[in-house]
Write a structure and sequence with these properties.
- The chain folds into 2 domains: 97 residues, Cobalt-precorrin-4 Transmethylase, domain 1, CATH 3.40.1010.20; 88 residues, 3-Layer(aba) Sandwich (Cobalt-precorrin-4 Transmethylase, domain 1).
- The chain has 10 helices and 9 strands.
- The strands form 3 sheets. Strands 4-3-5-6 form a 4-stranded parallel β-sheet, with helices on both faces. A 3-stranded parallel β-sheet has the order 8-7-9, sandwiched between helices. Strands 1-2 form a two-stranded parallel sheet.
- The protein is globular, with a radius of gyration of 20 Å.
- It is an alpha/beta fold.
- The model has no long low-confidence stretch (mean pLDDT 89).
- Helix 1 links the parallel strand 1 and strand 2.
- The longest helix is centred in the N-terminal third of the chain and has 15 residues.
Length: 241
């Protein structure tokens, strides 16, 4: 069984799987698929497509690989300033879904300032889980002595959570799982904040709580925050099982 991750994959990957006759489970997030479709529609309209995202991120590579035509990648407001595109050219932008509204706001504003004929998706198309977690970390930082973020080292949204913690002046650490927890990080902390990247499974968070419990008594409380009730349909291959 070949599984396409939630980040999505390029068409070349889909074609290779089909060419090999591999059974495929397409687990691409519907929000990512929506971005792919938006990009294709903008290109079909004759617009130059600009993708706001992180170079090398799996979602970015998959999105670029889904679009029939050139895609210009920008990561910062400075990148926008350096674009070699006429200011009156028809352009469109799409965004990596795991960037929050806060992450993209400045770049979008710069694009709209620079180009006179520009269109883009609504902010609600950005991954709600990313935005919610960033808001929660800002609130969490007011109540804790140290922050632990459970997530992969190459996860842009997990790294951003750690950065937000540091920006608030709270020592913050990114760990893949409980094995990376260093006792000295929390030895003087009375309250430890624990969060996770959008793709981190709950079992990893529970493992970190258990590891903290081995260092001393632990009382767990959940920070009140926005409840996530959105559900996506299962891939067609699983829905019929």
């Amino acid at each position: 069984m070949t599984i396409f991750s939630a980040h999505g994959v390029a068409r070349s990957v889909e074609e290779e799987a089909a060419g090999r006759g591999l059974p495929v489970l397409n687990a691409t997030c519907p929000l990512v698929t929506k971005v792919h479709n938006q990009g294709k529609r903008y290109v079909a309209q004759g617009r130059t497509l600009i993708l706001i995202g992180h170079a090398g991120h799996p979602e970015v590579e998959g999105t670029i690989g889904q679009i029939s035509g050139p895609v210009v990648l920008v990561q910062t407001e400075g990148d926008v300033e350096n674009l070699d595109i006429p200011t009156d050219a028809p352009v469109a932008y799409i965004t990596q879904t795991t960037l929050s509204v806060d992450d993209t706001r400045g770049v979008i504003a710069k694009l709209e300032q620079r180009f006179s004929d520009i269109v883009g998706p609504e902010m609600r198309d950005i991954c709600y889980a990313t935005q919610n977690r960033q808001a929660a970390v800002r609130e969490l930082s007011r109540q804790v002595d140290v922050i632990l973020v459970v997530g992969a080292k190459n996860s842009s949204n997990s790294n951003r959570l750690r950065e937000i913690g540091l920006e608030t002046g709270i020592p913050s650490y990114l760990i893949a799982d409980s094995s990376e927890l260093q006792p000295e990080w929390v030895q003087d902390a009375r309250t430890v904040g624990l969060t996770a990247g959008a793709s981190a499974p709950e079992v990893l968070v529970e493992g970190v709580i258990e590891a903290l419990g081995r260092l001393g008594p632990v009382e767990v409380s959940v920070l009140a925050g926005r409840e996530e009730t959105i559900e996506f349909r299962l891939p067609a291959e699983l829905a019929s099982v």
